[in-house]
Amino acid sequence: GQQVMQIPQYQHVQEGEDFTTYCNSSTTLSNIQWYKQRPGGHPVFLIQLVKSGEVKKQKRLTFQFGEAKKNSSLHITATQTTDVGTYFCAGPRGSQGNLIFGKGTKLSVKP
Amino acid sequence: DGGITQSPKYLFRKEGQNVTLSCEQNLNHDAMYWYRQDPGQGLRLIYYSQIVNDFQKGDIAEGYSVSREKKESFPLTVTSAQKNPTAFYLCASQMRSNQPQHFGDGTRLSIL
Predict the structure, then answer these.
(1) Which of A2, A93, B22, B24: CA 20 to 30 A from B32?
(2) CB contact under 8 A, A33 and B100
(3) Looking at chain B, which residue has its C-alpha nearest residue A48?
(4) Which of A30, A44, A101 lies closest to B98 in CB terms?
């Protein structure tokens, strides 16, 4: 069945270093969404990418959607302790609006 | 203030007991979802509902049941048939297909 894979599973960085998480789908996606879950919290929507090759920025966060619409990445420049959490990508499954989530990348930032 | 309310925040289940997790939303969203989250497993879909009085099984529906009698409410019952219920349960709602999902604060369920 359809799968969404994320790597790495964990990433430990020093504050100020950059961070990237990669998301790969087994099928072509109409769109991809990214969520952030702080420790002890719930997932919060960050962004949705729809177009092939799309790049969107939110301050220090850069999101990309691959040309084939099967992969995506999230890059954080100069991480801060406030970036700590787990980042999930998710793509639609079927026509009913369900999302299939990757297992997430857990980011820890050492001050 | 619009949002999704899950209760209780913590729940303990005894052997052979059914427990019900509450999820209420005032966002006027049509679709609602229940996910289970285990460490390192991401979010796994239990049940979802696109409209009132209709719902479908997700990937891990065995041992769970739901109802959708009102647009605002989507309670999840963890039955005694679910042998490993300890997890973090998240409820989400969505305005329509391909829109972002909004999550509640979650319920942590443990076995006594």
Answers:
(1) A2
(2) yes
(3) B100
(4) A30
In angstroms, rounded to a whole number, what is the distance separating the alpha carbons of residues A42 and B87?
13
Distance CA A36, CA A88 (A): 6
Question: Which structure tokens are listed for B72?
Answer: 């605002």
Nearest partner of B101 among B92, B111, B110, B88, judged by Cα: B92
Counting one residue from chain A and one from chain B, the pairs whose CB atoms sit within 8 A come to: 51
Give, in degrees to the nearest 5, the angle at Cα A16 between A11 and A19: 35
Q: What is the mean pLDDT of chain B?
A: 94
Nearest CA in chain A to B106: A42
Reduce the DSSP state of residue A82 to 3 states and report it: helix
Q: What share of chain A is helix, strand, coil (3-state, %, to 5)?
A: 5, 55, 40
Q: What is the pLDDT of residues B62-93, one digit of tens each?
A: 999 999 999 999 999 999 989 899 999 999 99
Of residues A9, A41, A97, nearest to B31 (C-beta)? A97
Q: What is the pLDDT of residues A64-101, one digit of tens each?
A: 999 999 999 999 999 999 999 999 999 998 766 789 99
Contact yes or no for B109/B11 (Cβ under 8 A):
yes
Nearest CA to CA, how far is A17 from chain B (Å)?
24
The reply to whether B39 touches chain A by the CB within 8 Å rule is: no
With left for phi above 0 and alpha for psi between -120 and 50, is residue A85 left, alpha or beta?
left
